[in-house]
Amino acid sequence: MRVVRSFFRCLLCGALVAAVAGCATTRPWQREQLAQPSMKPDGDPEREALRSHMLGTREGAIGGFGHGGGGCGCN
Amino acid sequence: MRLQLAQPARLALAVAITFAMRDPVSAADEPWRLSTDTLVYSDSDNVVVVSPQVAVRRALDDDGGNASARVVVDVVSAASVDVVSQATNRFSEVRTEADLGLAKSFGSWLPSVSYRYSHEPDYHSTGLGAGLQHRFAGSDATASVSYDLSLDTVGYVGTGEGTFSEPLVSHAANFSLTQVIGPKALVRGVYTLSVQDGYLEKPYRFVPIFDRAGIAAAASDGVAINLSNFDRYRLPERITEEVPDTRIGHAFAVRGLRHVEAISGSIHADVQLFADSWGLTAETIEPGLTWSASQAILMAIYLRGYFQQAARFWRREYVVDDPDTVPRWRTLDRDLSDYFAATLGGRFEWQRGILSGYVDLSGAVTAYSEYLFLNGRLALIGQAGLRLDL
């Protein structure tokens, strides 16, 4: 039951994200702030790879912004 | 340790180098990046992990195309309750992982492939990945889809593969959409479907089983059963861990990022929900703040909260009427229990010419509410890296 409830919560969040897709186009001269280093949605890939692996051994969840499954026995 | 790359890894490396050596059409002025990082993890449960990493990346175009190679080594030394509760002394282990990646843009499309191999004395893993990213709506939106396959072999230290060798196959499909929602903000949504099929137990783990007399004896002694006394009250049988062979997980995550003029930086928040077929659910929230201290210095602070509700077959104590009727599913994996973890960290990044680097320090506290051997732990995590752009 908890799985079903969580799944529907995910669907709801997905609908919200889909709803903002297709917002008004940002003009090139409006992108100065979006181009700043602090606005990068992805961190440095090598730094994030190490951090993600560490979190993968500490947290039971799989996927999302974090770690994938597999690749580590972590015994 | 000498790293032995399998035949597919050598082929993938050759392809990656061939692409990397080609003149890029319009790559950045400094297309090569050499990286070195080290992560040090230490916690109050007697676990120390040092993970040095080296990587090289070659930009192939200005739209995210690149060829990359990465090697990381985990040096683990542990005498945690997981280990000592099985009457085992401290162990040390080295895990080595190598990753290769290749992405090349074709207009607004960015296909990518990746290969991973990791080895530790009792675990081998080979991973393959493929992805496709597409920019649209005037580059205000980016959609991506990726698939990763992991083929693992679980072994047992000190025995050959003929003695103990169990397969585990993992699939992960990722769908993500990033949308600019104005000149100052963007949002990203990610959904991950993960399927694991095979041996998901830990071969060293035996689950203590109690009968009602043992539980009553502990109660009459006025003690809670824990690491120091569980041997006194448990049944003598050593029952191996047993969990379902298949685990299907759904993760949905949203990241919001907004520029804040007053601090020349941004605020961000990640929210993530996870649920799987074992009944385990988890919620993660990670707000953070990043700001420019000067043109060359970036600072960040972040907080991460992780809340997990146990798998439906998790028990603090497995109590049976007789040893022949043990529960079909039983586990001692605290990562399947109820717990809460909070992490507070800060990062300092700097750049000077072609050299840049960072230092990231964080502290984490974990509280287990239903784990027989441990109520909580404190961890200190340090990570630092250097980048050379050529």
Describe the structure.
The complex is a heterodimer of chains A (75) and B (390). Chain A is mainly α and 75 residues long. Chain A is built from two helices and no strands. Chain A has helices at residues 2-20, 45-58. The longest helix of chain A is centred in the N-terminal third of the chain and has 19 residues, at 2-20. The model of chain A has no long low-confidence stretch (mean pLDDT 73). By secondary structure, chain B is mainly β. Chain B has a single domain, classed as Lipocalin (Beta Barrel), CATH 2.40.128. Helices cover 8% and strands 57% of the residues of chain B. Chain B contains four helices and 20 strands. Chain B has helices at residues 7-21, 81-84, 212-221, 230-233, and strands spanning 32-43, 47-59, 66-78, 91-103, 109-120, 123-136, 141-154, 166-180, 185-198, 206-207, 209-211, 239-240, 246-260, 265-276, 281-292, 297-309, 318-320, 339-352, 355-368, 376-389. Chain B has a 16-stranded antiparallel barrel with strand order 1-2-3-4-5-6-7-8-9-13-14-15-16-18-19-20. Chain B has a two-stranded antiparallel ribbon with strand order 10-12. A two-stranded parallel sheet of chain B has the order 11-17. Mean pLDDT of chain B is 91; it is low at 1-5 and 19-25. The interface between A and B is large, with 53 and 101 residues.
